[in-house]
Amino acid sequence: GNAERLSGLAAELVSLKPEVIVTFATLATLAAKKATTTIPIVFTQVGDPVGSGIVTSLARPGANVTGFTNVIVDLTRKRLELMREAVPALKSIAVLTDPMDPLNTSYLKETGIAARELGLEIRVVDVRHPSDLGPAFTAIVQARTQAVVLVPGPFIFTHRMQIASLAEKARIPVVGWDRDLAESGALISYGPNRLEMLRRAAVYADKILKGAKPADLPVEGPTEFELVVNLKTAKALGLTIPQSVLFRADDVMK
Length: 254
Description:
Blueprint: H1 6-15, E1 21-24, H2 26-35, E2 41-46, E3 65-69, H3 76-86, E4 92-97, H4 104-117, E5 121-126, H5 133-142, E6 147-150, H6 154-158, H7 160-170, E7 174-176, H8 179-184, E8 188-192, H9 194-209, E9 225-230, H10 231-237, H11 243-246, E10 251-253
Helix pairs in contact: 1-2, 5-7
């Protein structure tokens, strides 16, 4: 969870002279791209590769970088719709975000648009350090906010257990983007199947090892998505998840 280490770690990898570097998420990919313009890089779980400056376009990534986007920003409205369906009385949400994450601006923009269209009040809560999380939830409770939406990023993912614990104590449902968040205690998660994307990244790495150039391999999106519902969390919060949500869930945790 310490993004400041990434540049040094990327430089260390480059010094080992590998034939391919595989990266996970936006910050690691940016660090690797900065560290080398010659070693092929295959990324996965990057939310906005064009907007982040990782590639010039999805069809023609250019240079030495290609990979797989999780289109996580594009799924923002879907996650809000699922949370409102699970909590029909929902009127207000808090967006928990790390302002230092490069995906932050795009995600907040899309969340704001989706919230307005769905008639939801939105409150942005910044967290930069683990010590910020407790005061953040205190502020969320004091504002009578009804749910928390997690902005994708390494900080939020790393501290998902603490976030889930604070949310349960505050009796506030949380929606996230990855099944690990639901497994850690979030009420709902919806997003791409991460393991499926990693397997496809391995296929790209194999193609590059056999002579393909990253510039000739288009950036691809996910083909499988997962809706995960945590009924144990729902029970702790005193919520009854509608059957319409449960029937669509790929996994229901009891």
